[in-house]
Specification:
By secondary structure, the chain is an alpha/beta fold. The chain has helices spanning about 15-25, 30, 40-50, 70-75, 95-100, 115-145, 155-160, 165-180, 185-195, 200-210, 215-235, 245-250, 255-265, 270-275; strands at about 5-10, 35-40, 55-60, 85-90, 105-110. Helix 3 packs parallel to helix 4, helix 6 crosses helix 8 (about 165-180) and helix 8 (about 165-180) packs across helix 10 (about 200-210). This is YesN/AraC family two-component response regulator.
Length: about 280
């Protein structure tokens, strides 16, 4: 059973009846969300964000006093990592461009389509779950290293959302999880995908996790290789892939280099694991 928390949603739209329609349109609980708050303008919404954690913002663009783009610009100044859905009546390319530049996850048009909203929520829920799992991994590493104490049940500080730095590392871990099988994965390619400076990412990753980016990628790849090699050792009915194939599946073009890294990490060769001639004790 998943232990991921319910994601908190803020709906911002100057039309009261649209906010109510959206609230009733979706089975939020089934989707893993709860509508934590609603606001009819950006100023009120900013106050809400300053007072409580928000995981997803759903906002219109055309609103009085402060439009949705200006509002999200202010949100980003707060270093909020909240996910973002724009729902608007304006099929405007310039608006869409600005929305993307502000980190919009989805840009939907009114009249709102239920299926489109639910699909967007499924995607965002998956991303949030991966982020929280990565944060728990980071906390376990920090606890193991003695940087922080094991959080006590009910400790309010343990319930606070991670800093923007930790959010970046969570995104990095999620990116590596999705791309470790690609031999082109590197610090530079990851930093480019996340729109950050490689040197900054390298420093932040080491600071948060206690291991370098390269070390982390290597551990992920070799861990996956161990799983695949062990499956071959169990003699499952499907033909097991050759070691060179497994090397490629976890991001190594050169099977000899893969074997060298594997032996350094586990003290045994891939062939030893693959043949089942090792002790699991």
């Amino acid at each position: 059973m998943s232990t991921a928390p319910v994601a908190r949603v803020l709906i911002v739209d100057d039309e009261y009846y649209f906010r109510q329609l959206l609230i009733r349109l979706v089975d939020w609980e089934a989707a893993g969300f709860e509508v934590a708050a609603e606001a009819d303008d950006g100023t009120t919404a900013l106050q809400i964000i300053g007072e409580q954690p928000i995981d997803l913002i759903i906002t219109d663009i055309e609103m009085p006093n402060m439009n949705g783009l200006e509002f999200i610009g202010e949100v980003r100044k707060l270093n909020s990592a909240a996910k973002l859905i724009f729902i608007t009546s304006y099929d405007n390319f310039s608006y869409a461009q600005q929305a993307i530049s502000l980190g919009a996850d989805h840009y939907l048009l009114k009249p709102v389509d239920e299926d489109a909203v639910e699909q967007a929520l499924r995607t965002i829920r998956t991303q949030l779950t991966e982020k929280w799992e990565a944060e728990r991994y980071i906390n376990r590493l920090r606890i193991k290293a003695g940087d922080v104490q094991e959080p006590q049940a009910g400790d309010a500080r343990a319930q606070k959302r991670q800093s923007s730095g930790t959010a970046l590392i969570s995104k990095t871990i999620a990116y590596v999880t999705a791309h470790y099988a690609e031999d082109t994965l590197s610090l530079q390619s990851t930093a480019s995908a996340l729109f950050v400076n490689p040197s900054y990412l390298s420093h932040a990753f080491k600071k948060e996790t206690g291991e370098s980016f390269v070390e982390y990628v290597t551990n992920v790849r070799l861990g996956e290789a161990m799983k695949l090699l062990s499956q071959g050792a169990t003699g499952e009915e499907a033909p097991a892939p050759k070691i060179a194939t497994i090397a490629r599946q976890v991001g190594y073009k050169d099977p000899f280099y893969f074997s060298k890294c594997f032996k350094k990490r586990y003290g045994m060769t891939p062939n030893t694991v693959y043949s089942g001639s090792y002790s699991d004790t």
